[in-house]
């Protein structure tokens, strides 16, 4: 079989790329080893797919080259994807901070992409394993051996995503192909992932699973105002997922438990109060958390009314309320991570087309590239934008 373009990976970026190439009259084969189409879209956004973010800017992405994503994001913007969603009459809503979700189900986004691909003449081949890729004899195209057929292609697009959630088909395929062609891959690690703690660090909070707090979480210069969730293994929730992408082993994380207050002023104004300190904190924090947190800070000493603490002790408490320090022992790993940080070194690719500088005709799109979005619809926007960029070039 001979095709103009073979795309490996029928996920978000792969389908976007395939349909755009198809619309330009290219013959396109889309290959995936999974039997179900785009499982990651299906499970995304709690089943409702946070498909983009209205306020997407390059600053929402992590990469060794923070400017790399600019060109693709400018050429295919959230507005373009919203137009596609509206064309297919998929109803959606903004949850918060520009995050757009389907009203009904993520499956609608999968069906939309599939029907756009089919209308553009894209042929799907799945489940299908790619066992070997070589340059053709003229060294301009590619020859692929797959479990379905032998295929020749002028252009090859790798859209096989990252390592997160191996249970639904994630594989290191894209990184291996990069290695085969001498293309550098930056260090990989799980991101947007719950953080774990040594048992003694959070033992005071062990009975508090499910409690959520409004916090500002900071690490290595990044800050996020989001909910933090106590879990049986440590800390999670959007605040922790966001900051996990900036955390490195050994780094402390600082948690502002009272983002709305100046704790120093607030405590000073109440220094003559006869209520227990935990009762005071419970005005702004869940009561059981306030008691446990105070117990941990006071080293288990019995609680006394606020007016017995003395100004110095109260003043020492304020910075701890605004910058409670915790040191994670690790992350929950790729099984729980939403994305993989790192990937195909952006120095190896054209930022306009996603084509390899070393291997003409070879493209990398989506999460396999060293461009990782923050939480909030940015990762899909990168998949659409990078897929579109390659789709215009192949
Ligand atoms: P993928 O969508 O992962 O697609 C890769 C495809 O390649 C898959 O179909 C896979 O089967 C195929 N493949 C892999 N290996 C091979 C191989 N060896 N041979 C053939 N095919 C192969 N992002 C958001 O922006 N909003 C959200 O709401 C959101 N929610 C998420 C929720 C969860 C639980 C997870 C895990 C992620 C979420 N993400 C979200 C991140 C988002 O899903 C990914 O960033 C995005 O899917 C990446 O798109 P991609 O096309 O690069 O890769």
TrEMBL record:
**Pfam families from the xrefs?**
HI0933_like, HI0933_like_1st
Q: Where is the RsdA/BaiN/AoA(So)-like insert domain?
A: 189-339
InterPro entries, per database record: BaiN-like, BaiN-like_dom_sf, FAD/NAD-bd_sf, RsdA/BaiN/AoA(So)-like_dom, RsdA/BaiN/AoA(So)_Rossmann
Q: Which cofactor does it need?
A: FAD
- Keywords assigned by UniProt? FAD, Flavoprotein
What is the species listed in this Swiss-Prot or TrEMBL entry? Answer: Nitrosospira multiformis (strain ATCC 25196 / NCIMB 11849 / C 71)
Q: Can you name this protein? A: HI0933-like protein
Cite the RsdA/BaiN/AoA(So)-like Rossmann fold-like domain residue spans from the record: 4-392
Asked if the record carries the keyword Flavoprotein, the reply is yes
């Amino acid at each position: 079989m001979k095709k103009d373009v073979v795309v490996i990976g029928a996920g978000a970026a792969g389908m976007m790329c395939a349909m755009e190439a198809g619309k330009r009259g290219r013959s396109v084969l889309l290959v995936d080893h999974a039997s179900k189409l785009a499982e990651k879209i299906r499970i995304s956004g709690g089943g409702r797919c946070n498909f983009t973010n209205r306020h997407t800017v390059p600053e929402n992405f992590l990469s060794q080259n923070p400017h790399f994503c600019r060109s693709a994001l400018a050429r295919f913007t959230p507005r373009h994807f919203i137009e596609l969603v509206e064309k297919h009459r998929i109803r959606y809503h903004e949850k918060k901070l520009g995050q757009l979700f389907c009203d009904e189900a993520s499956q609608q986004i999968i069906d939309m992409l599939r029907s756009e691909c089919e209308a553009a003449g894209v042929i799907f081949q799945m489940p299908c394993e790619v066992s070997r890729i070589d340059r053709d004899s003229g060294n301009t195209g590619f020859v692929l051996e797959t479990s379905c057929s032998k295929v020749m292609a002028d252009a090859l697009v790798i859209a096989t995503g990252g390592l997160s959630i191996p249970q639904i088909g994630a594989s290191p395929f894209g990184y291996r192909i990069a290695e085969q062609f001498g293309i550098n891959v930056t260090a990989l690690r799980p991101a947007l992932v719950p953080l774990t703690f040594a048992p003694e660090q959070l033992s005071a909070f062990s009975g508090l699973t499910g409690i959520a707090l409004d916090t500002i979480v900071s690490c290595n210069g990044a800050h996020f105002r989001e909910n933090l969730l106590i879990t049986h293994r440590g800390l999670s929730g959007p605040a922790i997922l966001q900051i996990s992408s900036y955390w490195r082993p050994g780094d402390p994380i600082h948690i502002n438990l009272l983002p709305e207050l100046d704790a120093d002023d607030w405590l000073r104004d109440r220094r003559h109060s006869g209520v227990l300190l935990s009762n005071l904190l419970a005005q702004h924090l869940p009561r059981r958390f306030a008691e446990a947190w105070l117990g941990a800070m006071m080293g288990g000493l019995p609680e006394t009314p606020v007016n017995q603490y003395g100004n110095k002790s109260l003043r020492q408490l304020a910075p701890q309320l605004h910058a409670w320090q915790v040191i994670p022992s690790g992350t929950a790993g790729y099984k729980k991570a939403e994305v993989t940080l790192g990937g195909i070194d952006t120095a190896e690719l054209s930022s306009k087309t996603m084509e390899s500088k070393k291997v003409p005709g070879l493209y990398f799109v989506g999460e396999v590239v060293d461009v990782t979005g923050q939480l909030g619809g940015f990762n899909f926007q990168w998949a659409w934008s990078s897929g579109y960029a390659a789709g215009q070039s192949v």
